[in-house]
Amino acid sequence: MEGFDFSTMGIFFALLGAVLAALMGGIGSAIGVGMTGQAAAGVVTEDPSKFGKVLILQLLPGTQGIYGLLIGFVTLTQIGVLGGNPDMSLAKGLLYLAACLPMAIVGMVSAKWQAKASVASISLVAKKPDQFGKSMIFPAMVETYAVLALLISILAITSIGGLPV
Amino acid sequence: MSDDYIYAVARVRSKELSLLSRQDIDQLMACRGFDECLRVLSDKGWGGAEGSSAEAVLAQEEEKTWAFIRELTEDLTPFSVLLYPIDYNNLKAAIKCVVTDAPPQDVFLSGGSIDPQAMMRCVRENDFSSLPPAMAGAADEAYHTLLQTGDGQLCDVLLDRACLSGVLQCGKESGNELLSQYAELKVAAANIKTAVRACRTGKTKAFIDEALAPCGSLDASSLAAAACKSVEDIYGYLSSTPYSGAAEKLKESYSAFEKWCDDQVMDLIKEQKRNPFTIGPLFAYVLARQNEVSTVRIILSGKLNELDDGMIRERLRDMYV
């Protein structure tokens, strides 16, 4: 497009990063919580007394959506969309996009795999309710990587503002 | 889609808690008599109304299993591997009843995928078009063979072979490894049984060739050739196949071989206890329940006939849980 100034696209890419973090984390969590919800409903159909235990396991893959929302919110605040000056260079916009990607990608993938671990743990609780504590640990291990992605995304997003680009 | 069975598998996991364990079987074995066994089973929730006969209790348990599976999945196509033998048994009964003009009383098994009365109509009208194509072809051939030759055994052989081919094909088409392996095992075990019986009763090679169903893990023609010679030749052939254990058990006794077949199925499905997805755990649950019913039947008939505990125990199958 003749006359189009790409250097003004910084805010677009920054916003794209915020949206992707919330979107992909949310999609992953929705799929994950849906899967675990089916398993939890199956167990509760046969034994309603296990509702409390399976509910916790169902919710575990839901955290990625929350982390995505957090990254999206922090990014929107940093780039001035929620108030402040939204002008930024293209390089800075791309940096914000890159900073959001760990949470977006790891969030979506880890939510699905955590859901699989949670479904397996729900089966474990169905057969051995006394092993509930151990059954929580297996899907919680997957959470580690979502938390690491969250950390790196937050560190990157909050540091980009001070960079001379 | 493997994820389609998440809810169903979770329910199956909860249901597995009520399967009979080895301790439950020991408790049944420790009962002093047949009536006490029935009381223990009733305490465990088996049967329905008080005072039901043993056969009624076992039939109710079979029906409960299928009612549960029908609740979990509308599509019972993958379970055809288990339903075909019932359907073909009912088809045999229907053909024989029509040809011999005998009333169809207490000859049909319940739980098949095709209504036995519909089969009776098909045979009476000599129109098998409403049956599945493979079954219709076999039914037509078996019906006319029985009419022309009056040979009931040949009619059985034709239908049994069609049943085994159907089971094998259904297993392959399911796309599920467990179903495929189960179908292969069932067909191979049926071929071995047929070969041994045919050998002992001195059947001709043509008859044996007709009776054996082709399968991947056993070469039907080699097995038929061995069956024409001697039982030792069958053992010799089996020792070079994955069924060498079957040969050892056949040397012991026929009941040891039948127990070996059932135990092989249990070994096959035990992995499903760790599978939270796919149809495998549902299929394993049905087989576990059938194994449970057949084990309880062995105990009950042993107790009823006051057999020695040792004799009953050597026939008891491995349990799923």
What tags apply to this protein structure?
heterodimer; A: 165 residues; mainly alpha; Four Helix Bundle (Hemerythrin (Met), subunit A); 5 helices; B: 321 residues; Topoisomerase I, Chain A, domain 4; V-type ATP synthase subunit C fold; 3 domains; 70% helix; 0% strand; globular
Element layout with pairings:
The complex is a heterodimer of chains A (about 160) and B (about 325).
Chain A: H1 10-46, H2 51-59, H3 63-79, H4 90-127, H5 132-160
Chain B: H1 6-15, H2 22-30, H3 34-43, H4 54-72, H5 80-100, H6 116-125, H7 133-149, H8 152-173, H9 177-200, H10 205-211, H11 220-229, H12 231-239, H13 244-252, H14 254-270, H15 280-304, H16 309-313
Number of domains of chain A: 1
Strand content bin of chain A: under 5%
CATH architectural label of chain A: Up-down Bundle
Quaternary structure state of the chains depicted: heterodimer
- Briefly note the structural class of the backbone of chain A: mainly alpha
Q: In CATH terms, what is the architecture of the largest domain in chain B? A: Orthogonal Bundle
In one word, what is the shape of chain A? elongated
What's the gyration radius of chain A in Å? Answer: 19 Å
Rg of chain B (CA only): 20 Å
| Order of SSEs of chain B | HHHHHHHHHHHHHHHH
Helix content of chain B: 55-70%
In whole angstroms, how far apart are the ends of chain A? 25 Å
Order of helices and strands of chain A: HHHHH
Number of helical elements of chain B: 16
